[in-house]
Write a structure and sequence with these properties.
Layout lengths: L2 H17 L42 E5 L14 E7 L2 E4 L3 E3 L11 E2 L16 E5 L18 E8 L6 E8 L16 E3 L6 E3 L3 E4 L11 E4 L11 E12 L1 H4 L5 E5 L3 E9 L5 E12 L2 E2 L3 E7 L3 E10 L7 E14 L6 E4 L6 E3 L6 H5 L10 E4 L7 E7 L7 E7 L27 E9 L7 E10 L10 H8 L3 E5 L1
Length: about 500
């Protein structure tokens, strides 16, 4: 091996370390601080199943009780725990689940190829979570009405910071599973271990990895009839593009650019946990950069609620990227196959007074969206004109991950108007490209010059409001921007 080849291989190996997150960094970065929500109108309650009393205005919010905040419940198994709420003057069990996290902060899954038990063998400990939904909370009851025969008990007060409205639930543990009353029979979620990585079924949507090339690019996305959709998959696949350009001193006469897409990921699908309130899915991703040499991996813990999804993606940068690369870009986008000129519309919160018609021809105004920042905002798609319902999504990054978040949008059945790497890599035709498939919509991370070494977690969110109409974004964005306040008392 000559010196030139050795230097080049060294540069490639360093690039691998910089590009892709290292496994077991899920808990390294908490969710980003709330950002100002994008403009939107008022919305009716988007709950799939309205609360029994209809008094608490935050039905889609998860209420999470960590073990460190409920010491009297520590050591209880899932079978010994129960959650109650007041319904029609009486405490009744409501759907909940207890989810465990291991020492690295990853969710403990119970089905799949890599089932790793928690260190506490199924007992509720400090980093585990009891979760239920805002739609199920009720009114306040006196302590004399709390469940009897319990080993530990807490009242949970949930406050909406926007309206001051309050809801209550009661979390208790029993001496044994046999002494606990039957749990609520209500289930909001299902999960099927099918295809290349499973199918999550909420009350308003389905999302699955049914014919995925790598297990990363989900390709089944349905808005259900119960939510105003048609139960038809109007989606091609998730697209991921990673672009790097080495600085001149590292190229040694070789090509300086690395363009990779979703086909270049090695994905290990660990498994899932199905629950009445949320489904959990765990996978590990490795990006192949050169000669199918895998980079260090990232463990992604996805959370599926009945009408929305949270994808926290950790990114570990052991050195400052700009030291090695003159250009860095990460694009994540959704390739829909809605027919053009059928009334389907795209909404961008930075332009609250306009919906863009999906017409099969990208206008200059639409192309200008790709040059704007979409920080703190969201994209919405209204396909009710063809009976397909609607959805919207947003991306949140920590402030310390100092990149520019811009748009990726194409409303064009031809190949014009976007960079060549969206047509496929290595002169290969775009996999599964459907002529007339519109739109392509997503987010683009550029301008990495201020990003230093460190661990960052970027959060991707999908929302599927029931009978989606413009303005229905507000209560869901409040989950991120104005989270409910939770306090426990005895």
């Amino acid at each position: 091996m000559n010196n030139h080849t050795a230097r080049y291989l060294f540069a490639v190996l360093v690039a691998i370390l910089v590009l892709v997150p290292v496994a077991r960094n899920f808990a390294a970065d908490p969710p980003p601080a709330p950002a100002p929500p994008g403009p939107s109108g008022e919305a009716a309650s988007p709950a799939m199943v309205p609360p029994a009393q209809g008094t608490f205005p935050r039905p889609a919010d998860p209420i999470v009780i960590k073990g460190e905040d409920a010491p009297k419940l520590l050591g209880a198994t899932d079978g010994e725990l129960r959650v109650f709420a007041e319904k029609n003057g009486k405490l009744q069990p409501i759907p909940y689940q207890m989810d465990e996290r291991n020492q690295w902060g990853e969710f403990v899954i119970v089905h799949g190829k890599r089932v790793v038990p928690d260190e506490d063998k199924g007992k509720y400990d400090e980093n585990d979570e009891i979760v239920f939904l805002g739609r199920d909370v009720g009114g306040k009851v006196p302590k004399s009405a709390w469940p009897s025969g319990t080993k530990g008990a807490y009242a949970v007060e949930i406050t909406d910071p926007l309206t001051g409205a309050k809801g209550y639930a009661y979390v208790v543990s029993y001496p044994s599973a046999s002494s606990a009353p039957p749990p609520s029979p209500v289930r909001y979620m299902k999960y099927k271990d099918v295809g290349e990585g499973g199918l999550a079924i909420g009350q308003n949507y389905e999302l699955g990895f049914l014919k995925s090339t790598s297990g990363l690019d989900y390709n089944h996305l349905v808005v259900k009839k119960a939510a105003g959709g048609d139960d038809v998959n109007h989606f091609d696949r998730l697209k991921v593009r990673v672009l790097l350009k080495l600085r001149r001193g590292y190229t040694l006469g070789f090509s300086s650019e690395f363009n990779r897409n979703e086909k270049n990921f090695l994905v290990k699908y660990f498994g899932y946990k199905e629950g009445p309130v949320r489904d959990l899915r765990v996978m590990k991703n490795n990006l192949q950069l050169l000669w199918k040499l895998p980079s260090p991996g990232a463990t992604v813990n996805s959370v599926f609620y009945p009408d929305w999804i949270e994808w926290p993606v950790p990114i570990n940068l052991p050195v400052r990227p700009s030291w090695l690369f003159s250009r860095q870009e990460l694009d994540v986008s959704h390739d829909f196959n809605y027919p053009p000129d059928k009334g389907v519309k795209l909404f961008v919160s930075t332009h609250p007074d306009r919906w863009y018609d999906i017409a099969g021809k990208t206008s200059p105004d639409e192309m200008a969206l790709n040059k704007e920042t979409s920080e703190g905002g969201y994209y919405g798609i209204d396909a009710t004109s063809i009976g397909a319902g609607g959805l919207f999504y947003t991306v949140r990054r920590p402030k310390s991950f100092d990149t520019k978040l811009g748009g990726v949008f194409r409303d064009d059945s031809n190949d014009s108007g976007e960079p060549g790497y969206y047509k496929g890599d290595d002169n290969e035709p775009e996999r599964g490209w459907i002529k007339g498939a519109t739109p392509l919509a997503g987010g683009r991370f550029v301008e990495w010059g201020n990003v230093g070494r460190g661990i960052y977690t970027v959060y991707f969110y999908h929302f599927y409001p029931s009978n989606y109409k413009p303005g229905a974004e507000k209560p869901y964005m409040s989950i991120l921007d104005h989270p409910v306040q939770v306090s426990l008392y005895e």
